[in-house]
Protein: Pimeloyl-ACP methyl ester carboxylesterase
Organism: Actinophytocola algeriensis
Amino acid sequence: MNVAEPGSAEVAVLLPGTGSDDVFVRSVFEVPFAAVCVRAVTPRPVPGTSLAEACFAALDEAAAEGPVIAGGVSFGAHLAAEWALANLDRCAGLVLALPGWHGDPGDAPGAVSARASSDLVRSLGVDGALAVATDGVPRWLADELTRSWRGHGDGLADSLATAAGRPAPALADLARLDVPAGIATCTDDPIHPTAIAEEWLAALPRATMCTTKLDIVGVDPEALGRAAVLAWLRAGGH
């Protein structure tokens, strides 16, 4: 199968992370991509066990018009890379923020956190789980969790469990993605270790990486998007 010509896309499809939503992804990526004349498409997650399949459908729909840049945050980055592997001729690049693991999730911090959150929601309900999950966290993160978790509603527990149990592409598979790839990592994020992002960086043939910090993203979500888009540009995007 042919690989899409790098830089041939003017559309980027960006997917949300575990329990997150299109509102956050849009706040991260819309302006940084607009600055380089790329339109950001941020599909709303479909909560429940079909979460991943709905994301793939959104990518398929956008790519029907031509190759797209695929990307996302955390679990969304995993799904973007997974879709790209099955659609090498329709992926013109990758923008990957905060990958949480590669291969089987195992005891990766992001997977452990998502499993625990799923169990919490099943036992306490969304509001009860939010009371626990937002206790003592920064205000911006509490606000994000409150909006996105309530948006997932009754499907939240299944959404979290689905993300926690799904393998990400293995490093050997990432090596097949010969397109410009930008990776962004927060060096102070224990849930998405920078060491994992560095392993993605080493595996992808044409990747670069830029860093920021959660403390910065909390007041300026676009900082994460700027890091990812800058890395993509340095890798040969656009």
